[in-house]
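Q:
My hope is that you can spare some time for a protein that puzzles me. I hope you can help me see how the letters and the tokens relate. Thank you; the sequence and its tokens follow:
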Amino acid sequence: MADNMPILWQNCILQYQTEIARKAWIWFAATRGEGMQFEADSFAREVELLVLALRPMFAAGMREHRGSDEQCEDLLGFTLVRHANFRLGGNVRPTYIGGVA
């Protein structure tokens, strides 16, 4: 993570288990502006839970239907874009999704 972030942001970001949740928090806070850290926290937790819950399900489905890992990641990325669109009420393209890790 960037060392030039405010210490409050760093403390918020370091609580997440996954890198994508950290990126989602930064993206949401930057998109929605200053003062939205609590909303960003809620959003990042949802993203983290979605990734932790859906990745194993998608992977199992891909194994059953002979899909590839790339297809699994594409499906997860699509789901995360839909989640962001639902939460923000518009047609947004989150930047934290590239190479869902």
